[in-house]
Write the structure tokens for this entry.
Amino acid sequence: MGREIVTVAEMAAIDAAATRLGVPTRTLMENAGQAVAGEIAARLGPRPTAVLCGPGNNGGDGWVAARHLRARGWPVWVETLTPKEALRGDAAAAAAAWDGETHTIGQDNPMADLFVDALFGAGLSRALEGDAARLAQALRPERVVAIDIPSGIEGDTGQPLGEAHFRAALTVTFVRKKLAHVLYPGRAHCGEVVVADIGAPQAAIDEQRVTLFENDPSLWVLPWPDAEAHKHARGHVMVASGGRARTGAARLAARAALRVGAGLVTVVSPSDAIDENAAQLTAIMVREAVSEDAYGELAHTATCGVIGPGFGLSDAHYANLRAALDAKDRCPLVLDADALTLLSPITDGFGARDVITPHVGEFRRAFPGLLSNAHNRVEAARAAAAYAHCVVVLKGADTVVAAPDGRAVVATNGTAFLATAGSGDVLAGAVAGLIAQGMKSFEAAAAAQWLHAATAERVGPGLIAEDLPERLPQVLKALAPEPAKVHG
């Protein structure tokens, strides 16, 4: 199954294109309902089940699912918001094929152990009302399986449309994930998300030219050294350190860059922090910066630079940052933390190879009003990338990486234990380490995000930022290509 994430409008266009290409929507509905029944039966034994059917095609999927569950021997009935005779189109045909027990939602219906939410799909644009809202508030997530998306969640944002919305332990969607499956809070309300193949032709998906993806190693190729590689061929990362007692963040970024494969890493240190940095670094070099010229020189000679973690916020720090940014033929820069604060609000563009890695607060300062006026985080990150002419990593539980050309990925791996001091510094260093080895900046940022999150998953509870560079080799090893073997 592809990693594309589609909007509600794109999914409707895929359905329409499927019909034009010879797969009727009624066939898609039949396949969808059958897939829902199969996913439920694969996880649970037969139990009293109420399938809650709404007035549209999502309800039609529910009528089909009920029929297939009953064929598997389940005690199942339909509870509907709309009488059969009032249904239209494919939903009416699906309801007509159901000859089992049917009730109206809100009446004194049988007691169910499991509820299948087929009330409204991702296209819902208004809050739940009446009996649907009462059910949503009453049912615990562990008793709910949602078809497409839990009713009451807006499909393109993941935001609840009102106070009442369904929450599910399992959501079965079709063809591709939608934004609400990957963006919080919708992602949390979906439970496990399964994407079922219901027979939509690949050509119907390709017509949409989707540029949003769920981040995954299939989207990028890591740089692996060949047998004749040497350290200079693997790139040189410079990391700008803060002054005395503000050096730890730079060292975290530097170590991540080295661990992810950069051949050389140099910490550029103010004079008052040279001894502090040198005492704690071995494979990483330390270079004294006695003036802003040092930052321009290293930006000209390094393969990639990191500026911002623990850097400082004085006028002198701004001058050092500008020297790096304005250096002739400079390397790409990864800008984080203090560098973003120094430049906020961002009024001029960067280079297409540059990467900025703001958390939400930094993003709001850098791009005032953009996030609050955007439809969702993906739209905001894309707009920022286009405006600043660089790659934007909008960090969070659902990190978005966006390129100036509109491509974007959403993170779906990771753990809440990443919410710890220094983890963002490690991410910035990993991005730089991959760029230094020749990866394009968008792919490097996406790969670094995935590696960072996958490493955190391995560590789990008790994670501190220092763990991330040290455990990163385990994740890299799992992705490394197998040596070529001779076969007879």
The chain has a mean pLDDT of 95. The radius of gyration is 26 Å. Residues 218-479 form a domain with the UDP-N-acetylmuramoyl-L-alanine:D-glutamate ligase fold (CATH 3.40.1190.20). The longest helix spans residues 25-43.
